[in-house]
Amino acid sequence: MLIKPPSLPHILALAALTCASAGASADSSIDRARQRGSLLAGVDHVAPEYVATTKFRTPESIATALVQDVSRRLRVKPAPLQADAAKRPQLLASGDADVVLAAPPGNDPLRRTAVIVPTGYAAAPMAIMRTDTDIKSWDQLKGRTVCLSGDGRYAGTIAAQYGAVEKVFKAPADSLLALRTGKCDAAVHDDVLLEELLKLPEWKKFSARLPAGQRTPLVFAVPARDPKAEVYLKQVAAEWQASGMLAQLVNKQARSIAFEVYLDQDVPDCH
């Protein structure tokens, strides 16, 4: 789901109101990133650098792509950092991260210690299966094999909530390939990604689904004392919305993952 952030005129008005206090303050993470030449961005999973002769894998989250776009706008290099939930507030407070990009739940401490800027993207867990499946509800995943991606947000949660037997792969293409070849009864990933994937004709046989769970927005978090970073990121999010960039990213992501599955599937779909 793509959430509409504040309009660009609203952001520009806010920028004018905060200009005097934010200005070109050296305390702003935006200024520090420009001076350093790199944007230190805390994310849930740092995508490994591609190594020649290895299989490229598209990550489940679009966070890496968003960090790259913000860095391009700032004319600096992206420098993603591993930011586990417990470490996020300290990374911002210490200045070890200029910004954090995550999907914290409503009770997450990050929401109490930082300013939250929605990116416009939100997702929920969704399960897909073969169309002839006998699984009709999330509770029926108990004892069944569910494939997930280790760089996604749901590993561990499906076993804990529903008693499923999880198989965790390094990337969504590997999880979805396992679904197609009969190694799992269902695959769970972001609903936004799966809805886009299921538009492709080759996924019609695997279009049975369980309804998406609770939706969580992907947000930027910046220190409360940094109004310049807040205004800047709100403007970026508004421009993403106006250009349709988020929808384009998800479409590209789904098609790339589908192609990775196609290249690796050397056995027929399991019947």
Q: Whole-number average pLDDT?
A: 89
What would you call the shape? globular
Based on secondary structure, the structural category is: alpha/beta
Structurally, the number of domains stands at 2
CATH superfamily of the largest domain: Periplasmic binding protein-like II
Helix proportion: 25-40%
Q: What percent of residues are in strands?
A: 15-25%
| N→C terminal distance | 32 Å
Main sheet specs: 5 strands, mixed
Discrete helix count:
10
| String of helices and strands | HHEHEHEHEEEHEHEHEEHH
**Cα-atom radius of gyration:** 20 Å
CATH class of the largest domain: Alpha Beta
CATH architecture of the largest domain, by name, is 3-Layer(aba) Sandwich
| Spatial sequence of strands, sheet with the most strands | 2-1-3-10-4
Give a quick summary of the entry:
With 271 residues, the chain is an alpha/beta fold. The chain has 10 helices and 10 strands.
How does the SSE layout of this entry go?
Blueprint: H1 8-22, H2 29-36, E1 38-43, H3 63-74, E2 77-82, H4 88-94, E3 99-102, H5 110-113, E4 114-123, E5 125-129, E6 145-149, H6 157-162, E7 165-169, H7 172-180, E8 186-190, H8 191-197, E9 208-210, E10 216-223, H9 227-243, H10 245-264
Parallel strand pairs: 1-2, 1-3, 6-7, 6-8
Antiparallel strand pairs: 3-10, 4-10, 5-8, 5-9
